[in-house]
What we know:
Blueprint (H helix, E strand, L loop, with lengths): L1 E3 L1 H12 L10 H11 L1 E3 L11 H6 L14 H9 L6 E4 L5 E4 L4 H5 L8 H10 L5 H13 L2 E2 H7 L8 H13 L3 E7 L7 E6 H4 L2 H7 L3 H16 L1 E2 L1 H8 L3 H13 L3 E7 L4 E6 L5
Parallel strand pairs: 1-9
Antiparallel strand pairs: 2-4, 3-4, 5-7, 6-7, 8-10, 9-10
Helix pairs in contact: 6-7, 7-9, 12-14, 13-14
Amino acid sequence: MTTLSAAQLKQYQEKTFRTTESARLRTPQQAVDFVNERGFIFFWPVKGVTMPSLWCSVAGDRPVADAHDDPGHTSWGWKDQMLDKRVWYYGRILRKRNTIISLQTVPFFYALSPNFGEPELEISDQYHAGQIPLEVKLIFEALLVKGPLDSIALRREAHLSGPNSNTPFNRALDILQRDFKVMPTGIAEVGTWKYAFVYDLTHRYHPELLDQSRYISENQARDHLVTTFFNSVGAASDKQVQSLFGWTQPETQKSIYRLIEKGLLSNYSQIGENSIFQYCLTSLLK
């Protein structure tokens, strides 16, 4: 049994999460570099999930502030500013939370998505097979026909403007983003708050993803994403990995075991004195 101290792990995560004062992000370009460095991060920290976030890399390791003038909310402006710059991929992906993914890492996510080269036909097949609700199909087809639309116009074009459509519309957008079919690509000054996302079809906004992901196998994609995750967090349990990516237990464990065989991860490391058994980067034990 190998032991990794809690202090050692905390020090590692402070470095990779950029939460110390000297390491925090201060410019939009530093934010882009950080995402490229980590592969994928959350926009805001997610309760119960250990992961780097844009908020904590700007504001430090503390909860998101309610005050709109908190300096940490600089991250909100950067996020909006970068939506149409094609410097990263943004959407509600992991745990249905806002996730920022580097353009180098997106193909590995895309390789695991239900996209095989003909999105227009695939959305119809998924609907008729009972795999997606009607609202998903309506939103996708509205964007396909009309081009990029802000959320208010999208609801109108998809015939989901009624008050009873709020939940189905939002649920459908979550599914479309999770499956890498639709993504926010800008901000429009519309509606009561003069603020709404503009959405577009992923394969139209990032057509290169089809070719970039074509020859990535499922095992290669999972192993790359798990490696990237551990490079950020240092140590985690298989349940944490499974919960984050939404994979089955066998898919998760097989990926972890392959990485153990390659020497990248160590099996069942004890973190601190509380007998918490997790996997960790082998390099942390040297």
